[in-house]
Amino acid sequence: MGRTLPEVDRRNDLHGQEHWQGGIAAGLLLALVLLTAWSSPTLAQEQGVAVHLIDMAQDSELSATAASLADGWYDASVNSRVSGYELADGTPVSFGDWYHSDWPDTRVDLLTQFGDDFGLLWGFSTGERGEKYTVDPSLRIGFVAQAHPAANSVLSLTVRAVAWGDLNEQPCEGDYGEIGGVQTVNCRLAATVLAPEETLQYLAHAEPNRLHISLSYSASF
Question: What is the pTM of this model?
Fold first, then answer.
């Protein structure tokens, strides 16, 4: 399993949990408000508005990044990867238990269509939470516009921005006994030669792609 570590506090960060749950609530509320407003039969009839579900998927790159943290780190002294450890009392702990979620980050994308050549893109992701990491919920908004520069041709511009949705790894609290006392440490690197405070700079942090711009042209003959 790897090297023996001090006792580690595996309690979840309650503040992070409240932030994660609040973000989900905000995203779902926004989705509900927009869907209700633009799905109104009267409004749709007057303005030619239609709402379409264009995608729903669990293919988040940040989910994959979080899962890869379970691979641990490479220990050259034994020529193998360290993907777990033993507590001072001999209890084995696998990194795989920490970087796993029963509900992967789920993305929902919708299109509110205004006529034939313009639409509002909007959506959200649910976020994801494991024992030692969080992927925050995100809000997604943008537009798609089309023009017809010639007969039987379409010039299309798509712009989408993403707010929030960061991946953050959580530290552990390690008891280093009478000499070191209780210190905050990167869970994955607590068995390395690095001092506990030095391991914190290697806590994983990643952001989603904030801006997507696509320009395409097609023509038929």
Answer: 0.76
